[in-house]
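Late entry, written up from scratch paper. The run itself happened at the end of the previous shift, but nothing got recorded in the book at the time, so transcribing now.
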Amino acid sequence: MPYRWCMEKRGGNPGAKSLSFSLTDIPVPKAALIIAMSETREAEAELRRQLEQVWGYRCAATELGGVVENFRDKIIQAAVAAAVNNGVIDKVPGDIHALVHAVVEAQKGVLVEATASPSVYVKVGIAADDSWLAVAIYGESALHVLSNHARAGLGVTHFHRGASPRGRG
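Output as recorded:
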């Protein structure tokens, strides 16, 4: 049963067009991206329900914002809390280690190196099956209120839920 994805133009435009397509094969990274790009809590809940029921994925989402200096630590804490609270990962070192690696990789697409301190607002989508864990970050960053830029990042890691890490790293 493929999920039907529908996107519509905003603004109440009577001539607005809609686009819909079926997603018949959704690997874990794509699931995380879809969750991160969902625009409402209702859409997110429906997507998560479909991904969990049809594909057997464990999913979570969280939103956060702030200036880059505080953002790097906040996003890891928020992702761990969302993943643990929603049963995506267990609260064990191996699972948290895998999640942190995926978050750090996903941040590379979102955080920019700048002399000023940009503000960011993002939604984080997290999806996992028994072998793979993906973190997608989608949102905006801005050096000035009139200069928002859309940003996206994806981090994927292989993991075994509840396993202990092998060595350090």
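Helices lie at 28-37, 41-55, 68-85, 93-107.
(Scratch paper discarded after transcription.)
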